[in-house]
Prior knowledge:
Layout: H1 2-10, H2 22-27, E1 35-39, H3 45-52, E2 56-61, H4 64-77, E3 82-85, E4 98-104, H5 110-123, E5 124-135, H6 159-165, E6 170-183, E7 187-199
Parallel strand pairs: 1-2, 1-4, 2-3, 4-5
Antiparallel strand pairs: 5-7, 6-7
Amino acid sequence: MRDFWNQRYQRPGYAYGTEPNFWVRQVAHAIPPGPVLCLAEGEGRNAVYLATLGYEVTAMDLSEVGLAKALALAKDRQVPLKTVVGDLADFDLGDQRWSGVVAVTMHLPGELRADLHSRITNALAPGGVYVAEAYSPRHRSMPGIGGPKEGREDFFYSLPHVRSELGGLNLEHCQDIDRVVDEGPYHQGLSAVAQILARKPKE
C-alpha cells in the first residue's frame, strides 16, 4: 500500500485538494486546545487547516511522499506541522495524549478499524474529541467518485459498527448523510458519508 500512495502523491498537484474537509471545518471548534493527531493524513490539508487555528498538529501517514507535500503546504500557509510516517496496523497513539484525533476517509478492513478505534479511545485525553468522516455503505449506489473499491464492503463506515467500536466515547454526532464532495480529482460528486464527532468523558 505504501507504493500505491507514494505513486498517487507523486503526481502534480494535490490529489484531494489543499482545503480542509467540510466536516472538519464545521466541527473544528469542538476540539479542546492542545495537541491534535491527524491519521492517514496524506498531503496534509486537514492538519494544516487545524494548525492555522492554533492547534499543535501531528500528521501521520503511510506515505513519506504525501507528508513531504504536507510540510510544503504548511510552509506555504506559514504554520508549524509535525509529521510521522507510520502504519495504522501498529502505530502507537500513546495514552491519554491527544486533545483531538482526526481521520478523514480513513478506510480500513473492519477488524483493523475496530482495533484502531479502541486505540483512539485510549489515546484521547479526558474531554478529547474524535472527528471522522468516511464513505458509508450507501455510497456504492451514489454517483460520486471516491471510496473503497468493489469487494471491500467492510472498508465502509457502517454506523452500527462504528457505534459499537466507539463504545468508550460519547457520540455527540453520528450520522449517515448525502453531500456533494469537492476534494481534488479523486473525491467528487454526490456521495454518502458517515460523519462522527465523539468525545471522551472527562471522568
